[in-house]
Write a structure and sequence with these properties.
It comes from Rotaria magnacalcarata. Helices cover about 45% and strands about 0% of the residues. By secondary structure, the protein is an all-alpha fold. The chain has two domains: about 1-185, no CATH class; about 190-255, no CATH class.
Length: about 260
Amino acid sequence: MLIAVIDIGMLFSNVTCFKTGVKFFGQPTSLDITESNHYVITTCALYRIAITYLQHVHDHNDLDAKFQAAGGNCGDFHMIIARELEELDINPIFFRLAREEIALANIMTDLIYDPVSYTHFDNEEFENGVKFVTMLSQAVQSSMARLEWTQARMVFGFMLHSMQDFYSHSNWIELGMREPNKDLTAGRRLGSVADENTKTCKTCLGSDEDCVRNNLRVDNYLTSGYFAHFYPVKKPPGKCHHGYLCYFPGDNNEYCE
């Protein structure tokens, strides 16, 4: 999917504006796969795109084996890719800054779009979520056509965040799916989505760990958790919470659904 949307110029073109003021926000100290947050997932994916480019265009076929051997730890791959780019007379600083622009835009999505549930596929907002991803995809391609690389990278980061949230905020994996949802970037209906009357989660107490780990009540409908910034979260009866623990004072450490 990423190759279908991204133009390689987005990764290797001149970076005219690089904002470092938000570097602390969500950026990990390492790129170990155990830190599976938006920054790590995005950075590793961009390394994969760079490797694919170097393989297909410049026949650097040993890079894929090195990437697989790393077992998901992307920490050393900037220097490996940088050396490959230098051999091609491509300034690796452009790749590093472009990568950071995309990854930091991804992180900033939580600040810019946080109250809007469909941008994160929360509250079972799948239809509007797909429309949002489609709109961003079109905006990325429009910016690339005009060679507006900084704008393209920023919007691409926003789009990746929403797509990552689809998989992490929904029960797509719990439904047994092991491949990306191709309808997500095609602007189509995502499949069988639970309607407003379908009970999707059962309520569990913190002492019932088995219930907490197996609280989904649907195995054939797509659903996602309901989220709010304030407790208690207002949600329809029988629906799922966002997926965090409700450790609030006086709440007796109850788990959310």
